[in-house]
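Per reviewer request, we include the raw input and output of the structure prediction for the construct analysed in the revised manuscript.
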Amino acid sequence: MNRTLVNKDNDTFVRHYLDSLQHQRKLSMHTVTNYARDLGELTVFCKHMATELAAVTPVQIRKCAAQLHAKGLNARSIARKLSAWRGFYDWLSDNATIACNPVEGIKAPKKSKPLPKALAADDAVYLVSHANPVKNPDSPTQLCNLAMFELLYSSGLRISELVNVDIQFSKEGAYQSQGWLDVKEAEVFVTGKGNKMRSVPVGKPALEAISRWLTARANVVKPQPEIQHAYALFLTERGTRMSARVAQLRLKAHGNALGLPTDVHPHVLRHSFASHVLQSSGDLRAVQELLGHASIAATQVYTSLDFQRLAQVYDAAHPRAKKTGNP
């Protein structure tokens, strides 16, 4: 213990700690400045609570974090401040007499989970049903794209599930399909998270788009392809199984070409599928099964999306929903 620091005031503790960060731990001045700002806030809290830094309790630290949260500071920033304070008290325990590290075990508020983005139903249908206006709509690439996009929206697949779909169930040697299309039953079978398999209906427009692509696919597949490419439903121009990254880039470029106002990625179509089915049916359990969610909690976020849509309709239509103007 550094006896020269025993019973020193708050500013002295902070000054010595920052000095150790700069000269002993060799942290950059930018980092030291950030620590100084975070500890400065803690010092102000201590003054308001009429206590010394060395005497702060876990209850008081929780109160500080709660006040920061109430001021609108995000969870990540609060976590950073708690980390800075925790490091300070670790140092202080070696240089002064304190009962314990009051920040130990205290966590920041949970980060708010952002709501998934979903397209309006008209935008989603427009996206998956219209070819790129500057490309040949009958080219294998464009036929493959529309088949992929239709299936993503029709069945709410994850992109990893989509690219693993085969033209039919196949088992050859060590290879076995992780996903496959059953055209006769209008179903697609996929293996999702946790190695859990599920079947999802495929709509008529998606089946028609896939049928057009399968005709073109015969001219894309290699004469003697490797087994992992031979059965793949979706292929690149080189005759290899479509990768998730290439599918993502194709969908983004397609959305841009159609002039959609939002950045479109595969999960947008999955979110749109879930939101639109829930809006029409109100059956949360069914949506859970279709998405392959292990927990209903993961699906409940779409109830918030549905409420947002209803709230927008209410605000636009109800005469008492006006937030400005005369009462």
